[in-house]
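ok trying again, last paste got cut off:
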Amino acid sequence: MRRVVEGVGATVLRVLTATGSMARLLGQVLRLSLKPPLRWRLWVTQMERVGVDSLPVVILTATFTGMVLALQSYDGFARFGAEGMVGTVVSLSMTRELGPVLVGLMVAGRVGASMAAELGTMRVTEQIDALYTLATHPVHYLIVPRFWACVVMLPALVVLADGIGIGGGFLVSVLWLDTNPVNYMERTWQYLELFDLYSGLIKAALFGGIVAWVGCHQGFFAGGGAEGVGLATTRAVVTASILILLANTMVTALFF
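nice, full thing came through this time. structure:
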């Protein structure tokens, strides 16, 4: 019994310590964001890595998601003669939920892992410590550009994913399921509101912050050599994915 209590207590302490460390890092990022110098070149480089380099996985994910969603919706609606609502379901699902969540998870697996591995390597090779000797704050130099690059580029990727997902549903509905293309587009725009798009973009910005926040935290405080970097990378992806799903539930309950 004593060992069980000690184990639970140790787990709670680790969780509280990690939570406090992450909160402290986030506070530093927000405080240093507008502190000069702003280093625009680093910001642009990170935006390219987050946005442009993520295009292939985002395009593939959105295309197949829209196609599968159209197929499944058509099969279900055909049972009670509502095949014309496929366009509505695809557009609302992509803009409200599937676009932001899937893009967030894909970017967490690609960008979050990359940030954790990169910063973790810099930590174990003492490159981060060297920044202090050069009178450069490592959070300001390394984490702030990555954080805001994710916050800015995730909504842009989600807009692209929404359009491609709706287009993929259109192709399946028209070319495969012989749906009237005019009817599909009319139903797509008839029930789609700007708030549906805005809610997805707000989620995307939040998810981008979570990806960078978790990935940078895990890498920045990594230790234990190569093994520690690998563990930090794994924890970054898993933690970011869980927080994205949790944040999505909370924001959806708040908006709808």
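cool. The chain has one domain: 39-255. The first helix runs from residue 2 to 32.
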